[in-house]
Amino acid sequence: MSKVSIIGAYNTKFGAHVDVKDMISFKRKTDTKSFYDMIIEAGRGAIEDSGLSAKDIDAVWIGSCSPSRFVNQEHVAPIGVMIDPALRFKPMTRTEAACASSSVAIYDATYAIEAGRFENVLVIGVEKMTLLDTPAMTATLAGCSYWPEEGAKGMTFPALFAELAKAYAAHYKFPEAELRAQLAHVAALCYRNAASNPLAHVQNGPATAEAILALPDSGKGSNMMIAPPLRLHDCSLVSDGAAAVVLTTTDRAKATRKKVVEIAGIGHSAEYLPLSKRPNKHVLEAGKDAVRKAFAEARIDISSVDLAEVHDCFTINQLLTTEALGLSPDGKSGFDYASGRFGPDDDKCCVNLSGGLKAKGHPVGATGASMHALVYKQLIGEPIGAKPTKKTPQVGVTFNVGGSAVTNAVSVLRRIV
């Protein structure tokens, strides 16, 4: 079985690529960078970065969460032909797994290369979210919940992750003020890291937990409650963007590239879709299972990991993914963030050097591909975002989830040349 490596990557600017004409209703919007534009930009950028030409690409995978509702476009995969005429007649496939859509696309492409069917594959993740007003966007995302019990009952994703936050606080007996402070430290770290990322949606967020905690509870510039105990600065942004990677066999990568990053391990684990079915909401049990699988395949433990991009759609999930990785004992990650761990100067493992979903942005279908692309760039010494100061990273991990931590996708990326 052929091992698989990344040989090229590209990330578009994340943000709100719309021009808002009506500042009262926010309903009149003009597209300034379309769904199609972003696919083409990311695809061309990754191919160019790989040193290949489009004719060398054997197949294309595109991960996208809900383009039929966000931009009224189904049958997304063949848009890949628009990247370059040389891609005409190539097989193209779309994957969907909520916010993990493009991690799953990377896994499917990896399996195809391992099977010997293809040698060079382009994988793109994309989402255009900001053309919808807030109610329509919220309703679209609610389709990624368990609809009969959650979306149909008015449960939003902030509310679903608030359930995890409440369970976490109750299990570890954290007073409200303690949990709030822990979550503020998480958000502040992501804001600080994003200040070094020119592609991030937010580059000037409050850089300290104290600044976040000092914000008023209501009014302009507030840190208003969204779904107790989660506040505005605990929530990731609604963003537009795309990211792409080019995968090939490790043998070909070694023969053609001076810097090679191998997909050393994959963990892909599904949890019950309904929150009501889960026995323990204070821990990511399926996430831990995905970590075990990925680490076993890569033959590493957490002490080998130099940096991680984790799925902080909400700050509580950064605590949960940090613990699922084994970077902190269960119930202790918030104290570790508060003590200053996991920043660029951490001598063990840096977390969310890109700014994470919290500040880089979260165009849901693009997130998994973006994590892989930016960890790859860190490992080859071309960082986009904050840069580790204490070591030259050799091993990175991506931890991407879909839905309310239902699809759990963990990749170990290792620099081998």
SSE layout:
Blueprint: E1 4-11, E2 18-20, E3 29-31, H1 35-50, E4 59-63, H2 67-70, E5 92-95, H3 101-114, E6 120-128, H4 134-142, H5 157-172, H6 176-194, H7 209-213, E7 225-227, E8 230-231, E9 240-249, H8 250-256, E10 261-270, H9 285-298, E11 307-310, H10 315-325, H11 333-338, E12 350-351, H12 356-360, H13 367-379, E13 395-402, E14 407-415
Parallel strand pairs: 4-5, 4-6, 11-12, 11-13
Antiparallel strand pairs: 1-9, 1-10, 2-3, 6-9, 7-8, 10-14, 13-14
Helix pairs in contact: 3-13, 6-10
Quick structural overview:
The chain is 33% helix and 19% strand. By secondary structure, the chain is α/β, with parallel strands linked by helices.
Helical content band: 25-40%
Annotation field: number of helices? 13
Number of E-state strands: 14
Major sheet strand order: 5-4-6-9-1-10-14-13-11-12
Can you tag this structure with a few keywords?
alpha/beta, Peroxisomal Thiolase, Chain A, domain 1, 417 residues, ten-stranded mixed sheet, two-stranded antiparallel ribbon
Question: What would you note in describing this structure?
Answer:
With 417 residues, the chain is of the alpha/beta class. It has a domain of 140 residues: Peroxisomal Thiolase, Chain A, domain 1 (3-Layer(aba) Sandwich). The protein has 13 helices and 14 strands. The strands form 3 sheets. The protein has a 10-stranded mixed beta sheet, with helices on both faces. The chain has a two-stranded antiparallel sheet with strand order 2-3. A hairpin with a 2-residue loop joins strand 7 and strand 8. Helix 3 crosses helix 13 and helix 6 crosses helix 10. The two termini are 20 Å apart. The relative contact order is 0.19. The model has no long low-confidence stretch (mean pLDDT 97).
